[in-house]
Amino acid sequence: MRAVFPEGFLWGVATASYQIEGADFEDGKGPSIWTDFSHRPGKVNSGDNGDVACDHYHRFSEDIELMKQLGVNSYRFSISWSRVLPEGRGKINRKGSDFYNKLIDRLLEVGIQPMVTLYHWDLPLELHRKIDGWESRDMRHYFGDYSSLVFSEFGDRVKHWITLNEPYCSSHVSYLWGEHAPGKRDLKTSLTVAHNLLLSHGEAVRRFREVVKDGTIGLANVSTFVEPATDSKEDRWAARIRDQFINGWFFETPITGEYPSELFKRFNDAGVQPLIEDGDMDLISTPFDFWGVNYYTRNVIRKEESSILGSEVVQGELAKTEMGWEVYPEGLEAFLYKTFKEYGKKPIYITENGMACKDKLTDGFVEDFERVDYMKRHFSSALSALKAGVDLRGFYVWSLLDNFEWSYGYSKRFGLVYVDYEKGLKRIPKRSYYYYRDFLERD
Ligand SMILES: N=[N+]=NCCCCNC(=O)[C@@H]1[C@H]2[C@H](O)[C@@H](O)[C@H](O)[C@@H](CO)[C@@H]12
């Protein structure tokens, strides 16, 4: 099926620094908010943390070899801010930047194009402690300085960049529901954080234009397809508002320079809206080049007036992954089409798509047929979107390796490659790895 995708289409795998690197205290790296959070009792399943993770920091050559054998032509990864700037600002840690230079050079040697995420949730702990992290408007300056530094360091070889990974999660999962670092629970705070994240996105795009003249930069959002539980007016309205909260707030605002109006009014009436200063919305809507769509599933929504969103998520009836997320590839095509049509007709990369399975080693192998089926159906959905006219440029499977799944720790496996945490982090390609390899090989 690969041959029907456009020439130059990027087929890749995606990872993130805190989830795979380990070496969390090595070679001058500073702690992140996840270093702190994962070491707090009760915050992460079984007390797991990213101190070692998949030890990618020391084993990156082996992991690149796995990518080369897989046959991908691109690899999406994130830079650990506190590895290159241990306190989030000030002097660069050369050992940290050397790691990424070696990683990037090796990728290019084997013909794999890097796509680099500037921020995938691991904020330098010093910035959180000294200036309240993302709650502070000053973060746009520190994020801008960090961005300029890495653009200067790596922008000669890295031509595809993503400012933020899923600001929805770094704001609401982290500051409203408290499930992610730093574990706060307040809507006004999470909306302020979302605003500061979007300001920082805009600032990074402006810095990018100054430094990298021949590259492209985008924003990767949670992309959950939202549907009403029934065809009633109430449920359709509830789904519209919930779609603005999950998707529109981060897809529409950087395009229009305005927050989605119905939802903003609800927040304003409740006195929890973010403080918007002159110039903010211009900065947030600084033009960028592409969308990153991280698609996993859909949310079925019904009216529920007791919540400020006026809705609640209901359990759908479809088969679910180990995360409890419905398998709904149709939602990917619909979401891609909606994003392309309604949010600026920009090129789109599927920057994450994958599933957690109950992967078990049997005679030294993992027959993850469910994941193979999930991939087949989502590749097919992506192809349908392309045929419908969506300017889809690439597809990154989440993830290359089983890794640290945030508050679930190592209990949830998303990898094409099994990581044996009991046996020296041995990498064992699963059935899905070979499916993807054959898919990429075949014309
Ligand atoms: N209902 N429901 N909802 C689906 C909402 C998904 C929200 N979580 C993500 O998108 C995270 C993204 C993250 O980039 C990565 O670091 C995570 O490892 C993957 C897997 O969890 C996904």
From TrEMBL:
Signal peptide: none annotated. Belongs to the glycosyl hydrolase 1 family. It catalyses: Hydrolysis of terminal, non-reducing beta-D-glucosyl residues with release of beta-D-glucose. This is Beta-glucosidase. Substrate binds at Q19, H120, N165, Y296, W398, E405, W406. The active site is at E166, E352. It is an enzyme of class 3 (hydrolase). One of its GO terms (molecular function) is beta-glucosidase activity. GO terms for cellular component: cytosol. Its EC number is 3.2.1.21. Pathway: Glycan metabolism; cellulose degradation. GO terms for biological process: cellulose catabolic process. InterPro entries: GH, GH_1_N_CS, Glyco_hydro_1, Glyco_hydro_1_AS, Glyco_hydro_1_beta-glucosidase. Keywords: Carbohydrate metabolism, Cellulose degradation, Glycosidase, Hydrolase, Polysaccharide degradation.
